[in-house]
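Researcher: We're teaching a course module on how sequence relates to structure. For the next exercise, students receive a sequence and then see the predicted structure as tokens, so they can try to spot secondary structure elements on their own. Here is the exercise chain.
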Amino acid sequence: MITAAKKLGGAAGLEDIRYVCSSAEALECDVVDGTVDLITAATAAHWFDMPRFWERAGRLLRPGGSVALWTTSTEGVHADTPNHEAINRSWEAIRKREIEVFYGVGNMVSQQLYANLGLPWTVSPAVSGFPEDSILRKEWGTEGNGDVEDEGEEFLINGQTWRGLDSFEAVMGTGSPITRWREANPSKTGEEDVVRVMRREVERLLKEAGVAEKDMAIKAQMTGVLLVVKKE
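Model: And here is the predicted structure for the students to work with:
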């Protein structure tokens, strides 16, 4: 990831960006405590030791500095996808039969859009310096918040673009429950791999809906959340 980041550079230019490998709980760097404006983590905080993370973040941030944490959850395929109801039913059956047992606590916290993520005032021991009324919570794509496109937000639009089935298979294969499934089922490769089984189901159901093989693609139904907490 750092190699890719160095190639991209970023708006500030390569010479202004430093990369340091560290755990989220240690945040080891040569930045002076009390001088950081923003600490952010994308689809990762559900694996942190949150009491230790908040304690370290509190020391690094300047007064008024922010912690911004966000994650997403895939709720199956979007209604724009042909035969989407049948695809979602099939996926849910495979998930319950094969994958659900390999969900870790972090996976569930992310899937629940950080509703149960440890915050400075809820962790034990509690971490002072972050007023509870400073929190901002913004959701995308959830019931009562409108569809992602309807809100005019770009936060999740990239996740809801059409994907060819090769891309779908590659993305699905990166999930930690899938990694654990594969570790527990080393003999099930090729057509027996759980992601390949899901892909074949998509192909079958798209074909059933009259989609030509060359046109087969799906669109994900995404939800997301952004939490921002400020230091007093």
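Model: If you want an answer key for the exercise: The helical segments are 2-8, 50-60, 84-99, 105-111, 165-172, 176-184, 194-208. The two ends are 33 Å apart (CA to CA).
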